[in-house]
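Weekly modeling sync, notes
Attendees: AB, CL, MP (scribe)

Item 1: holo prediction request
CL wants a bound-state model with tryptophan before deciding which constructs to order. AB pointed out that an apo prediction alone won't tell us much about the pocket. Agreed to run with the ligand included and paste results into these notes for async review.

Input as submitted:
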Amino acid sequence: MEQARGQWGSSVGFILAAAGSAIGLGNIWRFPYVTGENGGAAFLILYLLCVILICLPYLFAELVLGRHSHKNPVGAIEAIRGKGSPWVWAGALGVITGVGILSYYAVIAGWTVGFIFKDFIAPHLDFAGFTGNPLVSIPLFALFIVLTVGVVLGGVESGIERTAKVLMPVLLVLMLLVIIRGLTLPGAKAGLEFYLKPDFSQVTSKTVLTALGQAFFSLSLGMGAMITYGSYLPKTANLRTSGAFVAFFDTLIAVMAGFMIFPAVFAMGARPDAGPSLVFVVLPQVFASMPMGHLVSMVFFILLTIAALTSTVSLLEVVVAYFVDERLWSRKKSAWTVGVVTFVVGLPSALSAGASGSLTHMTFLGKEGFLGIMDYLWGNISLALGALLLSIFVGWVWGVKQAGEELKLGSTITDSGVRLWGIFIRYIAPVVIFIVLLDVFGVFD
Ligand code: TRP
């Protein structure tokens, strides 16, 4: 059985695949608009603190759990506590969340594919006209699910790892090109100032929590994606170094996304706080009025598509790993079945950007539109809950001693290093995540 299970071909392969999971719409679409709404540089600093102090220790917890058991989130917990343990539900929540996030994430990813060609096929349509047309949004959504299934079908090493190894370096180069184009526009300096000169007068506790939630989502934490990717690592792999690289690359790309967007936005006299439409509405305007704009626009949406694909792959892989490990389904049957189910679950999201009036305008917990509500339920509440349960599980139920032994395998981490990590995973992470959860439920509003 162990033999049949996939494994990464190399540490670099793992780092690129896990960074591919982490780097996605969260970095390039969500991070800039959230930073733009929350004051720029001050938010950036809070974000960096959250990554280092909370997310990095928690990332190690997921990786350790996965590599210990070589299993999906459900199997990983069963391996420690046995089949009947209620903690297994924490793993199951992760698997369900995979379908939940993928169902709307692939809709947005479909838009990014459409925007590669939009200048040629539908130049007259604005963002709402484009996403509100079900004949456009549904086929693009279906296409993205099929692409994702296609990569996952190839398996861990020849599907996921090989795709990431090609696409991640391409992404980096394309981003550098767009950054250089933006920075050389007249007036770009105001954007740099917004992004780099902190003004803490606008920071509230809400800003801190927004930064932390963004960091969790961006690093693919809280639903066992890193348990699953960690489960394909050999015992000889150095979890500390690999994990640190993943967090570093994810953060680098988010920071670069800011450099890609703010100078261009300011150079064109647009506002940084446009919200979720920043990348889809403001940027195309920026591109349209700049020399070589069509080309830059295509490059930009190609890179957004690449980033999104390596992320949707990880979301699907968590669910597929569950069916392969626990239900003994074939990879092929698992990937197609989960793909079809996710497509059906995601249809209302695809119709909620204008195509259906009632889905577009429905409200729940203060969020408007079916897609926005799904994002809140799965991308905020469920991730925070999952991260809380998993950090308590690793820190208190499994225990820092046992988890620490696994963390030490393959690395030179010392006993005091493990103790320090234990403080973060037992006390700091759960308490801070609990506060985030209260915020998610609107306790601080
Ligand atoms: N991290 C990805 C992004 O930034 C999205 C993502 C992929 C994700 N897998 C995840 C988020 C698992 C949370 C959990 O776009």
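Recorded for review: The chain has 18 helices and two strands.
Action items: CL to compare against the apo run; MP to circulate these notes.
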